Structures are given as C-alpha cells and as structure tokens.
Amino acid sequence: MTVIQKTIQLPAYPRGCHLITHKIVEQLPELSTVQAGLLSVFIQHTSASLTINENADPDVRRDLDALLESWAPETFPYAHQEEGRDDMPAHGKASLMGASVTIPVTNGRLALGVWQGVYLCEHRNYGGSRTLVLTLIGE
User: Fold this and answer.
1) Which of 127, 120, 114 lies closest to 57 in space, CA to CA?
2) Does pTM surpass 0.70?
3) Which of 138, 110, 137 is nearest to 24 (CA)?
4) Beta-carbon contacts of residue 47 (< 8 Å; ≥ 6 apart)
5) Residue 134: helix, strand or coil by DSSP?
6) Residue 55 three-state SS
7) CA distances from 16 to 29, 55, 59, 63, 120 (A)
8) Which domain holds residue 14?
9) Burial of 114 (0-12, 13-18, 19+ CB in 10 A)
10) Chain segment 119-135, per-residue pLDDT in tens
11) How many domains does the chain have?
C-alpha cells in the first residue's frame, strides 16, 4: 500500500470559483503509480472551500459564485466584522461548501467524470495564497 501526503501552495486567486484539478495533478506525480486508491484534498483555511463540479462551461463557475453570494451576502448584519465585510460571509460559504473532497484513483488517474473538475472557491476579495494537504492512499 502506498500512502503519500504532501502540502502544496496555490497562488492567490480573486474571489470566485476556480478550476484547480491541473494544479493538484501537477504537484502529485506519484498519482501515476497508483492503480486503485483515493485522493483526499483538504484546504487549511476557513474562508475558502473545495468542491467538485462541471469543468467545461465557465458560466457554471460564475453562477455558483452568484449562488453563494445570495446565500451569504456581505450586506447581512453579521456580528463578526473585525477582518472586513467579506470575512464572515466567507466563513459561512466555506461551511456550506466544505473543506475537503475525496476522489477515487483508477489506473494512475483521478476517476472524475467527463465533466467534473476540482474547484477552489475563494470567498474573500483578497484571500491570498491557499494551502492544500493532499493525501494519496492506494496500491
């Protein structure tokens, strides 16, 4: 059994939903050696999140961000505002979306569907660099 864990840094992204599947695969060449397994991707932040969704039409990413904004708008009267108006809504959005995704690995590749990709959802206007922990388990 192979167990590999590594931490990777993503560059700062603007607010919105961004496909990062290629960044994960680039940073994990060991993936090609696993015939059957799982990859866990965990984000070490409370104001950004991860999800799996359509990877083809950029309108999906824009619409998803618009949905998130409607669920947790900056205009709501939040008590927690010490870090700016976009901070508490970002925490709420991150809780709704989640901090991790788990993806099957088959024959050295992520077993995502044809139209699926991993998104980093940046919920802050200026969130900065984000850290992911990748854990690959398999044979």
Assistant:
1) 114
2) yes
3) 110
4) 87, 90, 91, 94, 123, 124, 127
5) strand
6) coil
7) 27, 14, 12, 10, 8
8) 2-138
9) exposed
10) 999 999 999 999 999 99
11) 1
